[in-house]
Amino acid sequence: MKQGIEEKRIIIAIDGPAASGKSTTARKVAQRLGYTYIDTGAMYRSVTLKVLRQGLLDDIRRSPESVSDLLQDISIRFDGDRVLLNGDDVTTEIRENRVSREVSFISSLKPVRDRLREMQQELGRQRGVVMDGRDIGTVVFPDAELKIFLVADSRERAKRRYAELIAKRSDGAELPDLDALENEIKIRDNADAERALAPLKKHVDAHEIDTSDLTIERQVERVLDLALDILQDCR
Ligand code: DC
Questions:
Q1: What pLDDT, on the 0 to 100 scale, is given for residue 167?
Q2: What is the number of domains present in the chain?
Q3: Beta 76-79 vs 82-85: how paired, if at all?
Q4: What integer pLDDT is reported at residue 235 of this predicted model?
Q5: pLDDT tens digits for range 78-123
Q6: Residue 103 alpha carbon to ligand 1 centre in Å
Q7: Is residue 230, in this structure, part of any structural domain at all?
Q8: Is 46 touching ligand 1 by the criterion CB < 6 Å?
Q9: What is the pTM (predicted TM-score) of this model?
Q10: Closest CA to ligand 1's atom 3
Q11: 107 in contact with ligand 1, CB cutoff 6 A
């Protein structure tokens, strides 16, 4: 990289629906630039896991504001690729289906969004981060120098999820069902885009990239090209 480019540190916000390639792209872009990658979906998943572990889901459904109690002593940290919830490694557990099913509900609650937005803004304060989620370019860092909105056909996204699940599947475990996966993805897209607070939405300045027919390498190159243009202009 040219001298000077590495001195300027920007925020790259990558938003988009489930399984659109956000986390893989964001992680690789961060590696290439020497930036920190922050997976905000993992933060919403961690809160959801805490709710489930404490058996509070029904209480919170009945009285949503009660979620505030649980947020008082929550700590979510990233250690490389690992996610630590109050010091406990939850990297695998937060990807379980029981978490995926409830995360849209938990992430629609105002106390949860307020608390996590604060944490995310603190994590990005020094800049030099690639952050992915649903509302990073619109709400968390509307001043991010580069905003990306990734989209992909729902069938294609279900196929990616399927391949991920197959790769992680233990011997003898049931095969996932592609139609059911596509359906779950559509339900989550809808919930995330229709909620009142910080819905999934493309910022007017965001660059939309359709990843349906792109390899990961191409997605990464597209984002890096845009980032390098900005970094060069900033010199
Ligand atoms: O990126 P993911 O699929 O792991 O995200 C899980 C859920 O978290 C997603 O369905 C909506 C919520 N989320 C959010 O509301 N805002 C974000 N910035 C990131 C995720």
A1: 85
A2: 1
A3: antiparallel
A4: 59
A5: 998 899 999 999 999 999 889 988 999 999 999 999 999 999 999 9
A6: 7
A7: no
A8: no
A9: 0.93
A10: 18
A11: yes
